[in-house]
Amino acid sequence: VSIESPVGYTVPSDNPFVDNQDARSEIWVYGLRNPWRFSFDRITGDLYIADVGQNNWEEINFQSADSLGGENYGWSNMEGNHCYRLGCDSGLFSAPIVDYHHSNGECSVTGGYVYRGEALLHMSGSYVYGDFCSGTIWTISRITPDDWDEALIIESDLQISSFGEDEDGELYVVDYAGGIYKIVEDISFK
Length: 190
What we know:
- The protein is mainly beta.
- It has one domain (35-182): TolB, C-terminal domain (Neuraminidase, 6 Propeller).
- The chain contains no helices and 13 strands.
- The chain has strands at residues 35-40, 47-51, 57-63, 78-79, 82-83, 98-101, 109-114, 127-131, 136-144, 147-155, 160-165, 171-175, 180-182.
- The strands form 4 sheets. It has a 4-stranded antiparallel beta sheet with strand order 1-2-3-6, with no helix packed on it. The chain has a 4-stranded antiparallel beta sheet with strand order 7-8-9-10, with no helix packed on it. A 3-stranded antiparallel beta sheet has the order 11-12-13, with no helix packed on it.
- Strand 4 (78-79) and strand 5 (82-83) form a beta hairpin.
């Protein structure tokens, strides 16, 4: 959707559903249940979407910068990589790059950012995200187009409601109780 057009609000002619009478022309992707933060990698333009699940699974969805849009991420047939409804066919949907179960006290994914700062070079290019209930923070890094590596960063006592990014690409964690913490070298907060 363009709001900077000389004529005001317009839908770009290359949106994936612009000529589809069964869908709104503004739609870029669908099949998300409750996206809780999304961000674009400031270097590659890739899109990361944290999607809160219904009962059991949280997920991170990915869209490469060269996508033409129109991806179906599966909700309400899939929850993460798992059938939510009987008879679902996972091959019809764009699978998440990572999903995790609620069994370890996790309950609600909070999306973050791809780390592009200079203080934590070992995290460069990794997407950072967390869980509201457990306070756990992870990274996920793209190894190949279809292979991702997930790593645990820290198990905190925070209720992670958001992440922030400064102009240098350094990352911050926002706690529901009101604190803002910078992620630093020893993977603690200051």
